[in-house]
Write a structure and sequence with these properties.
296 residues; alpha/beta; Rossmann fold; two-stranded parallel ribbon; 11 helices; 43% helix; globular; binds NADP nicotinamide-adenine-dinucleotide phosphate
């Protein structure tokens, strides 16, 4: 079965391609935006890199043709000059859904975020909520998977932990007291492939979190200990960080904003975990941390 993946060079995409490469029955059309990104993808006989653009649904459809399921991963948390939530999260989703409809794909899987809501006052959550609505109103049936912070080799979350340990000190927003539900990126990929294989009728939204809620400061300590290191913890008051981010982001036209800080420091809560529904056995957090250390 052919699966098309957008944002295939993302941290989730690279891991998903690894799962597909090890599977004898799947073929992955790996959509990326540049030749450089295509050259960096894992090489395997059943991975077909394609350079795609989200500006032209007809050409996007041509690139994804043959896929029975489209997995839409492209998306951003941090805006930059020329890359807004509107273009990366909303318009790219519209183009992908339109392309999926044109090629007669049976199903779309979309990776979203906990708290996504088209009525949210947070622009990131709003854009992900709008993308969910676009996916849900489209022709093909769909599975939306809302996730907390993702951990695994190459993820932004893992890179932040590695940076903190290598510096030996970490200045944590609000002292890192916010509680997360880190999800192993391999578990997310297993869930994506379950949905891609099952292609259930209708539109489904799931929340999928990791097995253990943990305050960020405890996560940093636990990761450091697993590496046999110590990290000195400092605290940056959230209001100061937001003030600084507000000024810096206005000057630079992107980067860390007060709204991104709200996302990072928000408690991650899950009403009903979809691990069983999506056929996933959640990886214990310590095992996820060991995987990051092995790959570093
Ligand atoms: N990482 C997390 O903790 C987390 C948590 C919740 C949800 N998610 C969601 O999961 C998905 C994958 O996350 P990730 O962390 O693996 O992503 P990532 O590594 O940050 O990669 C982002 C991807 O989005 C693409 N992209 C950026 N700007 C774009 C634009 N304007 N138009 C189209 N594509 C654009 C990038 O392509 P280029 O390389 O060409 O820029 C890249 O393929 C995203 O939708 C993200 O919102 C992630």
């Amino acid at each position: 079965m052919k699966i098309a993946i957008t944002g295939a060079n993302s941290a989730v995409g690279q891991t998903l391609l690894g799962h597909i490469a090890r599977d004898g029955e799947l073929v992955g059309i790996a959509g990326v935006r540049s030749k450089t990104a295509a050259d960096g993808l894992p090489a395997a006989p059943n991975i077909v890199p394609r350079v795609i653009s989200y500006d032209d649904p007809a050409r996007l459809a041509e690139a994804l043709a043959g896929a029975r399921c489209v997995v839409h991963l492209a998306g951003i948390l941090i805006e930059a000059r020329g890359t807004s939530y509107e273009s990366a999260n909303v318009e790219a989703s519209r183009a992908v859904v339109e392309a999926a409809r044109r090629i007669g794909a049976e199903h779309v899987v979309f990776v979203s975020v906990l708290g996504a809501d088209p009525r949210s006052s947070n622009r990131y959550l709003k854009s992900k909520g709008e993308a969910e609505r676009i996916v849900g109103e489209a022709g093909p049936s769909s599975t939306v998977i809302r996730t907390p912070i993702l951990l695994g080799p190459g993820t932004a979350g893992a890179n932040a932990l590695l940076r903190a340990v290598s510096k030996g000190k970490a200045s944590l927003l609000g002292g890192g007291r916010y509680v997360m539900r880190p999800l192993d990126v391999d578990d997310l990929c297993a869930a994506i492939l379950t949905a891609a294989r099952a292609r259930p009728q209708g539109h489904h939204t799931h929340e999928l979190g990791g097995p253990e809620p943990i305050a960020y400061r405890d996560l940093v300590q636990r990761f450091a200990r697993a590496m046999g290191k110590e990290v000195a913890m400092g605290a940056v008051p959230v209001w100061i960080a937001k003030l600084a981010a507000g000024i810096a982001s206005r000057l630079s036209g992107g980067g860390m904003t007060p709204q991104v800080i709200d996302i990072i420091t928000g408690h991650e809560e899950i009403a009903e975990n979809a691990d069983a529904a999506l056929g996933v056995r959640l990886t214990p957090l310590d095992e996820t941390l060991r995987k990051i250390i092995r790959s570093a």
